[in-house]
Design brief:
The complex is a heterodimer of chains A (118) and B (114).
Chain A lengths: L2 E3 L4 E5 L4 E3 L2 E3 L6 E6 L5 E7 L5 E3 L5 E5 L4 E6 L8 E8 L11 E3 L3 E6 L1
Chain B lengths: L4 E3 L2 E4 L5 E6 L6 E8 L3 E9 L2 E5 L6 E5 L5 E5 L8 E8 L9 E2 L3 E5 L1
Parallel strand pairs in B: 2-11
Antiparallel strand pairs in B: 1-3, 3-8, 4-5, 4-9, 5-6, 7-8, 9-10, 9-11
The chains are: A mainly beta (118), B mainly beta (114).
Chain lengths: 118, 114
Amino acid sequence: AQSVAQPEDQVNVAEGNPLTVKCTYSVSGNPYLFWYVQYPNRGLQFLLKYITGDNLVKGSYGFEAEFNKSQTSFHLKKPSALVSDSALYFCAVRDMRLGSGNTGKLIFGQGTTLQVKP
Amino acid sequence: KAGVTQTPRYLIKTRGQQVTLSCSPISGHRSVSWYQQTPGQGLQFLFEYFSETQRNKGNFPGRFSGRQFSNSRSEMNVSTLELGDSALYLCASSLGEGRYNEQFFGPGTRLTVL
């Protein structure tokens, strides 16, 4: 089955410290992975994606993610956290099940709340 | 370029009623997907449209339906509303069909069923 797991409901970090939001996935075939962020009362904003190529993907707002095939992980990272990074973060994988066709359907993790304290 | 717009932003309905939500994709985007977001179930896929054709459908009852128009705008309809349909409904658009394109989300429609 295709699935995404975000093992931490909440991550707390002090402003200026590095942050990591964890994501592991289970897919058949090559994974197409995405990170989104959601601020209160807003929709999801695209941060970055991994399709193929370099395992370190750089995205918006200084975020990056490291794809690790052997650990089936795609952790989101930022070298120096800002208070304004506090939000709900979602990892997602494209549905690649046989018969799903050339579809854009995303399967999301449960989300991780990032709290950055001044 | 304007982002994905959804109307209305907030809706309050009672059980048994029906509701129609609207989504206008980013100009030039031809693919539209809908998701339901609830605290208990998280983000769940409803359906996806491309060039007025439904390409994929999630595991929701037949009370949930949608369509896409020739200008790529999309609507979703929920009939015979139940309390459990209270959720944030998110629309997302992407440039083309397929697996490589990121989706851009609208602000959502918050539906409350009383």
